[in-house]
Amino acid sequence: MARYRSCLIGCGRMGATIDDEVRNHPNSFLWIPYSHAAGHIASEHTDLVAVSDVLPEKVTEIQKRYNVPNGYTDYREMIHKEKPDIVSIATRPATHAEMTIFAAENGVRGIYCEKPLCCSMEEADAMLEACEKNGVKFNYGTQRRYTPLYQKMRELIDGGELGDIQAVIGHAGVGAAQWGHTHTADMLLYLASDSEIDYVQGSAIVDDADFEDNHVDGDPGIPMGYVKFKNGVHGYIVASTGSEYEVSGSKGKLRTHNNGVTCLWRMAKGSHSILEEVSFPTPPHASGTVGAINDIVAAIEEGRETTGNIRIACRSQEMILGFIESQRQGGAKVALPLENRSLYVGRRDW
How far apart are CA 246 and CA 225, in angstroms? Predict the structure, then answer.
């Protein structure tokens, strides 16, 4: 593969420094390299040629940290001058739509955008249109789907090893809709083979008054969410903590442990279909950030879709906003596509 010029927009936590927070964690091997900058440096297919941030001191700091030759305080100027192949967007979510659209319309071939995708389905629609119109390869910053353990789970699911898939369950706590459950929604979608969605139903911790202007000024917790996938799979977000995911099929079950360190596989055995543990073919651990970047490169070169492409990213974002719309409607079933596309969920300082 050729080497690709990459640029980073946003020199903050996810953009450049989160590796420091997790470096001494006993399970740091699950994430590092974690930040967008560290991922581009680690990838053998990208050269990080420039970074940008509205704060010039951050630009200088990250240039020095990663030995990046060029720095900007205006991302538009950076894209015009550097003409990158791939852009990473690691800013707060309120800016993701405008940055994605600008990059797509100004020659960028691939975009890796941090989660949450955006704050409304109106924004998501505009991002989708810009990427598809300009043939941009897009991946979403929900790193689990780019890591070997979850990919092995998906391989077993799609290969029929678990039989007919009945349910996928995300044990992720009440959490926060945009900051945390964007990960949960994406994994439910991924483990349900990225099926389209019939409807969602759920609850969110939102005061009814917050809905008056169709703008939820915050990031509400989601204690319960149900997803009816069009392929027949039932999806659930439950309030039990752990960032663990469970898949139940007619022939067996999978359950991740300790946020993806391992996976338990049980298969129905004998005439009474007693569940017995079998060996899960555990793959090596690898960075999801690097995996997402390399997947964009491969998609460009092979002319295929990415693993977390813009349509899938919009689908998982719509799931989250659908749960909140269900709360607005008193817990009703909400059919997708979401009718209330202007519902905006995000803090004012985003």
Answer: 15
Q: Exposed (0-12), middle (13-18) or buried (19+): which is 58, by Cβ within 10 Å?
A: buried
- Within 10 angstroms of residue 77's Cβ, the number of other Cβ atoms is 12
The reply to whether 12 falls in a domain is yes
Same domain assignment for residues 192 and 339? yes
Domain shared by 97 and 84, yes or no: yes
Grouping H, G, I as helix, E, B as strand and the rest as coil, residue 347 is coil
Give the integer Cα–Cα distance in Å for 236 and 248. 12
CA distance 141 to 138: 10
For residue 187, give the H/E element and its range.
helix 181-191
CATH code assigned at 54? 3.40.50.720
Are 14 and 135 found together in one domain? yes
Are both 260 and 297 inside the same structural domain?
no
* Residue at 350 is within a domain: no
Query: Whole domain around residue 59: which residue ranges?
Result: 4-144+289-308
Per-residue pLDDT at 1: 60
Same domain, 61 and 126: yes
pLDDT in tens, 296-342: 999 999 999 999 999 999 999 999 999 999 999 999 999 999 999 99
| Cβ–Cβ under 8 Å, residues 50 and 84 | yes
pLDDT band at 349 (very low <50, low <70, confident <90, very high): confident
Estimate the crossing angle of helix 310-328 against helix 181-191, to 10 degrees: 120
Q: From start to end of the chain, where are the E strands?
A: 4-9, 46-52, 70-72, 86-89, 110-113, 137-140, 165-171, 197-203, 215-216, 224-229, 234-238, 244-249, 252-257, 262-269, 274-278, 334-335, 344-345
Residue 204 is assigned to a structural domain of this protein: yes
Interatomic CA distance for residues 210 and 201, integer angstroms: 19
* Number of domains into which the chain is organized: 2
Which residues, including other chains, have CB under 8 Å from residue 196's CB and lie 6 or more apart? Answer: 229, 230, 231, 315, 336
Start-to-end CA distance of the chain, whole Å, equals: 37
Q: List all residues 6 or more positions away from 52 whose beta carbon is below 8 Å from its beta carbon.
A: 7, 8, 9, 10, 11, 59, 71, 72, 73, 74, 75, 78
